[in-house]
Each structure stands twice: as C-alpha cells, then as structure tokens.
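Observation: inputs received (chain + adenosine-5'-diphosphate).
Thought: call the complex predictor directly.
Action: predict_structure
Action Input:
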Amino acid sequence: MSLRLSDVTLTYPDGDDGRVTAVDGASLTVAPGQVIALTGPSGCGKSSVLAVAGTLIRPDSGVVEIDGTAVGELKEPERAKIRREAVGFVFQNDNLLPDLTALEQILLTAHVRGERPSKNRAQARELLDAVGLSEHENKLPGQLSGGMRQRVNIARALMGPRKVLLIDEPTSALDQARGRAVVELIVRLSRERELAALLVTHDLQSLEVGSATGADALVHMLDGRLLDSELVDA
Ligand code: ADP
Ligand code: MG
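Observation:
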C-alpha cells in the first residue's frame, strides 16, 4: 500500500494549558492508484490529517506509512526528503509565483531538490501536456484562468518520483464545471501514475464516487474521527 495511517492522534496546544484534539485515532489506507475523498465540517481535522500524512507534522501517537516505510521513525532530514520527493501537495490557493511561466513553476520544484533544469524539462512538459496546458507553457499566472492555474498547481505537485498526492479543497475557488474537471484530472493522473491520493473536499457533487472517472471512496470526518473508514480498510 502507498499511504497508511494507523490509529493516528494529533493534538495542538489550545492557547491555555490544555490541548485540542484535531485527529482522534484515525486509521485509513490508500492503495496506489486510488483516490479517497475526505469530507466533513470546517474544523473537524481534515487538513490536519493531510499534514500528518505528508510528514509536515508528527502525530502524538499512531503510525504513518508511506510506501511501506513508517515515517515516524525517521529523523527530520529523511522526512524532509520524503516530503520533497514522494509527496505532492495541492492546496486550495494555487500559490503560483507571479513572475514565473507555467513551465517554470513546475521546474522550480525540481530545482528546489537540487536537480538540473535540463534533466527535468521533458517531465515538466509531459505534465503540462497531461493537464491540457501544452499550449500555455510560457504564460504567467496572470494570463491564465483560475481553472488553468489550479491545473498548473496539480502538474507541479506531480513533478518528481511521487507516490502520494495530498489535496486540500482544490475546487473551492472554481465553478461546478471546472471543479468537476479538476477532480476528474486528479483521478485520472492518480490512476495512471499509481499514486495514493487523499482528496479533501466539500464539493461532493464533483466527486462522483465509484464512477469510472470519480473518487474510489468517500470518508466522512467529524470531531477528529474518521467515520465509514471500514469502506477502505479492507
Ligand atoms: P479542517 O481542515 O477540517 O477545517 P483542521 O485540521 O484545520 O480542520 O483543524 C482541526 C482542529 O485543530 C480545529 O479545531 C482547529 O482549530 C485546530 N487547529 C488546526 N491547526 C492548529 C494549530 N496550528 N494550532 C492550534 N490548533 C489548530
Ligand atoms: Mg482545512
């Protein structure tokens, strides 16, 4: 399996002397090529699940495995390497840099890893093609629509030897049709590239759970707990 959370609990300081429990005993398995959608009310812990799954935060307890490696046992530099290489993040805002072209946004990810741009140009172009933006590789974010910028963002998250894709509310700034197209794109690319994808969304209409182009399963979250997770624990 590519991403596995076993009985993960995460608390934050609450500003007084106590702790607030953001993730409460969460267990979840996402297989390669699978897209699991996670939904629930604001503040229930969805982004915290992604942060723990992506090694951004260490949980208080429980095990996170990426591609079979229990990442909690690794030292910080090794976790940072996994974050740079194996995990792609897509957030609600595209966070594109205003002065870089679409192609350069994607190359920058590899550059940060210390790789030579020439080596990565082919993969970056292939990714732009995969998200339908070949013709726009030299455009700046200001010259692209919101939907196109989110597609650049997705292509950027896929640059490199990715195993896991973590996506936080990617369609909230888009209309229904563009939102549906973004989910479809995430599903197609995750299957083609055998990525384990965890997709946080409120946009249940765009998910089309179980359809050929839709998410594989939907997990509800409430007060830090995953409900219905037996759907995907098998
Ligand atoms: P969601 O993404 O579902 O809206 P979050 O994971 O962002 O939920 O937050 C879960 C809970 O943890 C909330 O009660 C939130 O206020 C709290 N929380 C999130 N991040 C922090 C933080 N950095 N410090 C303290 N509390 C936090
Ligand atoms: Mg959130």
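Thought: report the result.
Final Answer: The longest strand covers residues 19-30. The chain has two domains: 1-86+163-172+186-234, 93-160.
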